[in-house]
Each structure stands twice: as C-alpha cells, then as structure tokens.
C-alpha cells in the first residue's frame, strides 16, 4: 500500500480490490506488474473482475497460464496508453486502440459506461499512473 497522501499505482489499486484478485494474479504471472506500476506511464485499465474471469472456460484460463505470450496479449487488450475518465467517453460508440494493438469500442450513455458492450462496474479509479 501507499502512504495516505501518495496515490497508488494501477497495480496497487487492483491489489486493494478483492474483486480483482484474479486479474492481479494474472498480471504478476505475465510479468506485467512492473510495467503497470511505472509512475511515468499514463494508462487506462479496463480491469476484468473475478466474475468476468469465472465466465471464461477453465481450459482457456489454463492455456493462458501456460502461454505467457497469449496471456500478455489478453491483458494488454484491456489497457489503453492514455488516461480516459468516464466523463470523457464519447456518447456514440467509438473505437479506441489498446496497447495490444486491437480496438475496443467505448461509449457512455444514460445507463452507464461500456467497453465492447460490457458495463464498467466502477469507473475513474485514479492512480498516479492512470
């Protein structure tokens, strides 16, 4: 954890959220904790919850745990190379490019914020690097 007056990094915030424990485990397994903790980086992470990972078939999760390259690709697909707050999300579906290189579609409307039609459960968790 961080000193009370010092903002946490993206990884430290995730470590403090029990519903993100699977994501934290996978980030560490992939060797990405350092990159996602870089205070010089400015990131937006669409962090899948434990419930989202529970919906992934076990054989796919097992494969990702044995294939670091594939795991890194999947995790990088959930990260933008810039900070975007929910109030900055477009009102019409808009493609944005992840650090993995593929696009995700983001939109905010009267019912919430969405990434590829998945609802953002908790938005704008600010960290010193995103």
Structure report:
By secondary structure, the chain is an alpha+beta fold. The chain has helices spanning 10-15, 21-29, 33-37, 50-54, 58-66, 68-76; strands spanning 44-45, 79-80, 94-97, 103-109, 112-115, 118-119. The strands form two sheets. The chain has a four-stranded antiparallel beta sheet with strand order 3-4-5-6, with no helix packed on it. The chain has a two-stranded antiparallel sheet with strand order 1-2.
Structural features:
globular; 130 residues; 6 helices; 6 strands; two-stranded antiparallel sheet; 33% helix; single chain; four-stranded antiparallel beta sheet; alpha+beta
- Shape, please? globular
Global structural class:
alpha+beta
Give the count of helical stretches.
Answer: 6
Low-pLDDT stretches: none
Radius of gyration: 14 Å
Chain-averaged pLDDT: 92
Report the oligomer.
single chain
Largest sheet: 4 strands, antiparallel
DSSP strand count: 6
Question: N-to-C SSE series?
Answer: HHHEHHHEEEEE
The strand order across the widest sheet is 3-4-5-6
Strand proportion: 15-25%
Helix content: 25-40%
What gap, in angstroms, lies between the N and C termini?
17 Å
How are the secondary structure elements laid out?
Blueprint: H1 10-15, H2 21-29, H3 33-37, E1 44-45, H4 50-54, H5 58-66, H6 68-76, E2 79-80, E3 94-97, E4 103-109, E5 112-115, E6 118-119
Antiparallel strand pairs: 1-2, 3-4, 4-5, 5-6
Helix pairs in contact: 5-6
